[in-house]
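FORM 7B: Structural annotation worksheet

SECTION A. Query
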Amino acid sequence: MHEMLQQEAPAASAVPRKRGRAIVVTSGKGGVGKTTTTANTGAALGALGASVVLVDADVGLRNLDIVLGLEARVRHHVLDVLEGHVTLDDALVTDKRVPTMRLLAAAQTREKDDVDTAAFCDLISALRDRFDYVLIDCPAGIEKGFANAIAGADEAIIVCTPEVSAVRDADRVVGLLGDGRDVKLIVNRLRPAMVRKGKMLSVEDVNGILRLPLLGVIEDAPDVIVSTNRGEPVALDPASPVGESYRQIAQRLTGTLTGVPEIPREKSLFEKLFGGRK
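SECTION B. Predicted structure
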């Protein structure tokens, strides 16, 4: 496997290329939107001109290819590379909408235990030499798949919904990530009206427990479901407020946007009737 990765390394140049950032997108709890977050953050980074590779680490339950609309183009997967059956370039799928973004799909018919953690870590290291950003879509749970996904990453994004169980699981994952990683938080699927009525945790409630730098807040909106079903990242829709939230997340990652993320607010009656928004 080492030779398969080595032969894909770029030619040496007079000015050494700065290594890319490896960021694992995780949560501990399933169903909170890790894959959607990975896809949209990657697409937004790519749209900014960064070179990005999205790595699906959810062996046996891959979905990142579907969210990106690339399932028909996947011919090889991460285990094909790790086991030396194909080169890394053979397995990478280019997104036609975002030419600077690639996908490395997970194996659909294998098990997470089939992945050698050290080899996966070497793979992520090789990708960091080629891309500005390596986003790793972490599987749910804290077993072998989690250990594989975090092994090569020195940064992490915790995706958490405003639910007590999600916050508890996210807090446990923060502890498992250790002190050596830069960890940030995205609060996903916020419903401002429910927060106002006291039926949903607020962003402040969530981060009162997790105490992490807030990278972004994503409102629970229908266009996310529509875009996911179509395989078209909402981050690429200039008219979508949720897409704008993902674009701002990408800008914060690149350092081109600073300041505290805006928390979605409940729309006024006028806005609900006439479609206006702040």
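SECTION C. Observations
The two ends are 52 Å apart (CA to CA). Confidence is low (pLDDT under 50) at residues 6-13, 268-272.

SECTION D. Sign-off
Analyst initials: ____
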